[in-house]
Amino acid sequence: MDGHDSPQTPKGSLRKFLEQLSGAGKAIGVLTSGGDAQGMNAAVRAVVRMGIYVGAKVYFIYEGYQGMVDGGSNIVEADWESVSSILQVGGTIIGSARCQDFRTREGRLKAACNLVQLGITSLCVIGGDGSLTGAHIFQTEWSGLLEELARDGKISTEQVQKHGHLNVVGMVGSIDNDFCGTDMTIGTDSALHRIIEVVDAIMTTAQSHQRTFVLEVMGRHCGYLALVSALACGADWVFLPESPPEEGWQENMCIKLSENRARKKRLNIIIVAEGAIDTQNKPITSEQIKELVVTQLGYDTRVTILGHVQRGGTPSAFDRILASRMGVEAVVALLQATPETPACVVSLSGNQAVRLPLMECVQMTQEVQKAMDERRFKDAVRLRGRSFENNLNTYKRLAIKLPDSEIPKSNCNVGVVNVGAPAAGMNAAVRAAVRVGISEGHKMFAVYDGFEGFAKGQIKEIGWGDVGGWTGQGGSILGTKRTLPGKYLEDIAAQMRTHGISALLIIGGFETCDRIKQSASGTKRRVFIIETMGGFCGYLANMGGLAAGADAAYIFEEPFDIRDLQSNVEHLTEKMKTSIQRGLVLRNESCSENYTTDFIYQLYSEEGKGVFDCRKNVLGHMQQGGAPSPFDRNFGTKISARAMQWISSKLRESVGKGKKFLSEDCVCVLGISKRTLLFQPVAELKKETDFEHRIPKEQWWLKLRPLMKILAKYKVSFEVSDASQLEPVQPRGPEEPAAI
């Protein structure tokens, strides 16, 4: 599906308009290089469409740097339709190759000559650190290469003057998430989906036979995939290149596995990064681990090596949205670049797009490898960035239980309750809360069936082993109801006194749901109209539309009328005359009282007669069902662990003060705001919340609305990123809050 919404500008002030960023006369080359990653096609599509949208010419450079060196039919002008229906395709349609020729000056001379002949002086490179380093070298040598070509009579002096500067913007496409400076690289989330699908499948067979599975995942120099998949499935042990196990790990691992079996755990999962090493930098292989488990414990043990399965398949919604945002940001960066602008990389920090100096990021990435080679493993973890470090600390906390005698008791009881609609990831959050609470010395209590169960006294102490295997479960194991606490407040207070509960962690709230599935491909000249959930919040329709390349997404936050509907129908009619003969329209369930899904379906069917036919689908509760995605599991785990640490610090503050009276900052909501995790007092949130519609008064994702419309060929204004200036790349200081 390709396209998006009504041609009205989004609400709120817009600081810069794309009209000021004309690409007229510019030629942009886009290439993918190095290992392929899911989501690269979404990035290519965004670069092509954004470039054409602002009036630039955009060229495909096939087969990476090899195509640039060979020239000819490898460098071809792209049009709007040439990137249709590629959002959902894995790999890269323009091909990728490792290129020895480009490593030589002679090869780079040929590449420069081929680009100059077509007037290409802006390059968008999608690849790993090797590919981006190559682009940086090419940029620094550019003027010298042109002078040499002119001396050899291969280009004219006019061409040297006209095309004297090359601007380069990089996007990191790498499933390993091994690039410093960005929270997530394109392809990582999809690779995690592949790993978790395998782990979930293995869990059922291992449970049947009481087996141990050793799972080897990609990551020659970076343990991100191994670490995050270990967090997401609650693995018993994980081996990473950045953080080798301590001396004597063989015995410690066997003790841990046998303790878990003694707790009636029927399966053990050990995850190994392919580049795993010990403290002496000697490789630790999956076969070695299997031999150890079999000889020491006699467990039935199997090895599964995932290999290239991790690179394959459809990109996840997260990767499609990330790549689309980065692609648009890359074109804006190229349009704003001056001859003095150094090569930059567009990256993600929290939920913000930022620009960072390319070579600083590459140097920091190389510093990690150097630290590992020199056995400075603590430095390696720190240089990987705040997200990696936080993941590792959380994994250690949740995987290894200290003996009771070593945990200082806090004498505090803490309750955990789920409220509102069930959401994927709730169980992972409960598991993390219980285990962090126990490691902090608290007694943890599970409250069943929401506030209603709380009032009735459905409260039970919950232990470390009770939450084993919860991360991959959908729904809410504790049970949840939408009942509000209002009428039960006295009973809840009585239950809190009875059980001596000093603090309460509430997981839920206004309906939350990260999962959305849509399929609307196949038949020609057909428009699918899909209704999504979300109450009055249009996040699912909006982001689902961006991930699926929809033609329109109707949401409550952006009012629309019959004229907008009419213009969307006309837009689709025009689209059907091209080679892109499919349409997708999303409608948030509460976006309008009168313009219902049926109304829109009938309007489109009538107006599209003879041009296209329509189908409609109401997704309903399937959006809340199924196993949680890797993102939901990890987000639930880490945000809950952080919440328990905050609760512990508040309880410590109140020790010895007798009765604790409620202050405003004792009731907080935890979430991501821009780039950091933020504890916000509920009293403050009241001012920022539209209670009637149960949504925030300001929604950060609304600024992505124009992006979808641009990629669907609507004329709109677009707010340029806050990061039009390059930011320094710095490893975080000790006080800076770590991101998810």
From TrEMBL:
Residue ranges crossing the lipid bilayer per the database entry: none
Catalytic reactions on record: beta-D-fructose 6-phosphate + ATP = beta-D-fructose 1,6-bisphosphate + ADP + H(+)
GO molecular function: 6-phosphofructokinase activity; ATP binding; metal ion binding
Alphabetical list of InterPro entries matching this protein: 6-Pfructokinase_euk, ATP_PFK, Phosphofructokinase_CS, Phosphofructokinase_dom, PKF_sf
Top enzyme category: transferase
Keyword Ribonucleoprotein appears in the UniProt entry: no
EC code: 2.7.1.11
GO biological process, one term: fructose 6-phosphate metabolic process
Domain Phosphofructokinase, first and last residues per copy: 28-333, 511-647
Keywords: Allosteric enzyme, ATP-binding, Cytoplasm, Glycolysis, Kinase, Magnesium, Metal-binding, Nucleotide-binding, Transferase
GO cellular component, one term: cytoplasm
Pathway, per record: Carbohydrate degradation; glycolysis; D-glyceraldehyde 3-phosphate and glycerone phosphate from D-glucose: step 3/4
Keyword ATP-binding attached: yes
Membership in a protein family: Belongs to the phosphofructokinase type A (PFKA) family. ATP-dependent PFK group I subfamily. Eukaryotic two domain clade "E" sub-subfamily.
Protein name per its UniProtKB record: 6-phosphofructokinase
